[in-house]
């Protein structure tokens, strides 16, 4: 439930004091920025590279200290009963703290605003009457434009205080949506905060119905981890993975608004872009290529060139010849093949092992060779030739190309893993003659990435956030997992929104493929986006698409506008335009969601009527508030009013009915205030 507070009509005097604190904080922030701008680094940087790095850090710091006019410097205040102990670090010593997006201190170094991520800020999100966490007063501030105009108080230790729902929180949730996604620091809920502040070493997986704040939580978690473990994560890096470029565009401003400018964003396709993707696969083939069995096939393929030596290696040095017999070479090769090291690392180790065998012989015959001799022997042409024969170099892309082009090679590597019929489906229709002519598909690129990792270990980041995780294939989970082997991950998704034929059926499975089987699975059920009536309508699909999942509840007060209307085919365009027109009569954005196959026709109708529109991810403005959204790109996005065209076409646009209904579920759950659904064909049965 939303937090309960006593609403106080702000009296002029305290409000004036709070405004004074806001002005003083702004001035302090300006002074902090000025100090950074005035830094002269010419004395402290010995060389050009250091100067560049330091210069960039200073530039980032100046950007992070920018006073964004319409982003309030603080949104809350905590009055502690006692001064927090020294262990509560930031801000210790006082008992009132203003909570904001970044730390601001005055000329003496005393905090004017405390970062929302500091330990001292935590009770702002977690304290309750049951557990006040030593907080006497929690105050939330309301702003109009950049002006502080209201506040609400909760006296957490006053048993006599009556409680009501927070108007400021409710207003934030109900606010019309325009432009890109915004941060939620002022209103993070306790169950969300638990995930945001979970420790850096553990991986957390969040199952959540549409609009429960998964994306928001994931982004705030990165910001929190960067605050709590800045040095470690600055070294190792952080990455947010989203389903497509328009989604990434939609979320790209959240972290910079929180002062975090260094977080990389990518799609899974971006991560594995070793080869150009120009081809497509049928649903069946893509599912097979994404199957975890492919990992074994690839392992066999990469190692298929390993041969046991037939001949001894003879190394000539000066007047002496040293001979490593074939059986001894075989032992070395076998030992390396059994060890759990990358193909490339083993290949690098092999010449040294052979050289070592030579050195042992030299020592036995009374010589005293040192490391330099071993290196020289390892570089000897005879040794190099033996390595090339026993452990040939592997080009990962060429290996995958062979697998998908040569039936005999695939049969050898897939033996006992994929049956004949499956192998046929895996092979390219037209075998590629070389890398230049290969028509790689997205699923093929993931295989190439796996092959790269078999040859050389992929470097791991400190933390990875994976959004819309339910859509990944086992092979894609592996690709993400190898990018956080030594780090941790936040996995976000909704099993009911899985719209790929290979979408995961259970988080435990996905986590096993990611290499994080020990991850904690959390569930979020309170929806902040979709109004009650709309989520109830969409939830009619749940028994068909994800029988185990409970429908989300909605914390929005307004039940929402829901209209489902059948129109004759010849009136369809007119009805769509009228519905958009009506939606535009309200404040906020309008999403016109249509089956991918209908985008061109509906776009032409909008053009003909002179209605301007945007593509998903593009920023809405006062002048253009309609976005034409292909159903396949609706995931993760939201619009104040959604006009949904032809549900049956959205369902039939997918390779199977379950996937189609899931796609429809995604589209039905994008609305913040109202949904109008127009259809000429009968609605899919579960909606009737
Ligand atoms: N605590 C909160 N306070 C205010 N708004 C919130 C809160 N949590 C989430 N929201 C808002 O609810 C909307 C939905 O959030 P978000 O997109 O993160 O949900 P999601 O679970 O990722 O949804 P989907 O599964 O549809 O992608 C966003 O506008 C977000 O800002």
Automatic annotation (TrEMBL):
Taxonomy, superkingdom: Bacteria
GO BP: recombinational repair
Entry keyword annotation includes Transport: no
Keywords: ATP-binding, Helicase, Hydrolase, Nucleotide-binding
A GO cellular component annotation in the UniProt record: cytosol
PROSITE patterns (UniProt xref): UVRD_HELICASE_ATP_BIND
Record protein name field: DNA helicase IV
């Amino acid at each position: 439930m939303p937090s309960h507070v006593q609403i106080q009509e702000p009296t002029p005097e305290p409000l004036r004091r709070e405004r004074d604190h806001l002005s003083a904080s702004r001035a302090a922030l300006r002074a902090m920025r000025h100090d950074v701008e005035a830094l002269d680094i010419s004395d402290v940087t010995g060389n050009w590279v250091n100067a560049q790095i330091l210069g960039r850090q200073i530039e980032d710091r100046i950007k992070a200290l920018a006073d964004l006019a319409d982003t309030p410097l603080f949104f809350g205040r905590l009055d502690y009963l006692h001064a927090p102990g020294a262990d509560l670090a930031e801000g210790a010593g006082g008992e009132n703290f203003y909570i904001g997006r970044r730390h601001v201190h005055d000329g003496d170094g005393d905090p004017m605003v405390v970062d929302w991520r500091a330990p001292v800020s935590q009770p702002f999100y977690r304290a309750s009457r049951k557990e006040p966490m030593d907080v006497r007063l929690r105050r939330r501030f309301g702003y109009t434009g950049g002006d502080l105009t209201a506040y609400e108080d909760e006296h957490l230790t006053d048993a006599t205080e009556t409680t009501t729902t927070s108007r400021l929180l409710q207003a934030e949730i109900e606010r019309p949506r325009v432009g890109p996604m915004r941060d939620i620091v002022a209103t993070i809920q306790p169950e969300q905060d638990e995930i945001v502040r979970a420790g850096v070493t553990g991986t957390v997986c969040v199952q959540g119905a549409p609009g429960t704040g998964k994306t928001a939580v994931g982004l705030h978690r990165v910001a929190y981890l960067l605050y709590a473990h800045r040095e470690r994560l600055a070294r190792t890096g952080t990455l947010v993975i989203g389903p497509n470029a328009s989604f990434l565009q939609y979320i790209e401003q959240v972290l910079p608004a929180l002062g975090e400018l260094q977080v990389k964003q990518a799609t899974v396709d971006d991560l594995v872009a070793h080869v150009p993707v120009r081809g497509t696969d049928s649903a069946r083939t893509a599912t097979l290529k994404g199957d975890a069995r492919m990992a074994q096939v690839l392992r066999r393929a990469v190692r298929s060139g390993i041969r046991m030596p037939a001949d001894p290696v003879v190394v000539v040095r000066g007047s002496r010849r040293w001979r490593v017999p074939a059986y001894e070479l075989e032992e070395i090769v076998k030992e390396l093949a059994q060890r759990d090291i990358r193909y490339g690392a083993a290949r690098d180790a092999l010449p040294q092992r052979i050289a070592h065998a030579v050195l042992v012989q030299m020592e036995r015959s009374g010589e005293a060779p040192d490391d330099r001799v071993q290196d020289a022997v390892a570089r000897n042409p005879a040794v190099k030739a033996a390595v090339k024969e026993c452990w040939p170099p592997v080009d990962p892309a060429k290996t995958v190309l062979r697998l998908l082009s040569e039936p005999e090679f695939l049969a050898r590597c897939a033996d006992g893993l994929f049956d004949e019929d499956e192998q046929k489906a895996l092979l390219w229709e037209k075998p590629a003659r070389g890398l230049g002519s290969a028509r790689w598909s997205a699923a093929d690129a993931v295989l190439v990435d796996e092959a790269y990792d078999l040859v050389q270990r992929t470097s791991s980041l400190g933390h990875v956030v994976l959004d819309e995780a339910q859509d990944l294939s086992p092979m894609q989970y592996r690709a993400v997992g190898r990018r956080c082997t030594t780090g941790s991950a936040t996995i976000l998704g909704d099993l009911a929104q899985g719209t790929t034929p290979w979408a995961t059926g259970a988080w435990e499975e996905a986590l096993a493929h990611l290499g994080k089987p020990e991850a904690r699975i959390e569930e979020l059920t309170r929806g902040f986006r979709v109004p009650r009536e709309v989520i109830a309508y969409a939830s009619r699909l749940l028994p068909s698409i994800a029988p185990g999942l409970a429908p989300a509840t909605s914390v929005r007060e307004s039940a929402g506008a829901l209209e489902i209307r059948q129109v004759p085919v010849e009136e369809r365009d007119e009805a769509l335009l009228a519905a958009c027109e009506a939606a535009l009569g309200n404040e906020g954005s309008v999403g016109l969601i249509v089956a991918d196959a209908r985008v061109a026709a509906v776009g032409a109708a909008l053009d003909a009527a002179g209605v301007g529109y945007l593509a998903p991810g593009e920023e809405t403005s006062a002048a253009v508030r309609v976005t034409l959204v292909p159903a396949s790109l609706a995931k993760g996005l939201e619009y104040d009013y959604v006009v949904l065209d032809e549900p049956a076409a959205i369902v039939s646009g997918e390779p199977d009915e379950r996937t189609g209904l899931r796609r429809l579920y995604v589209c039905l759950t994008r609305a913040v205030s109202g949904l109008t659904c127009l259809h000429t064909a009968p609605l899919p049965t579960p909606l009737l």
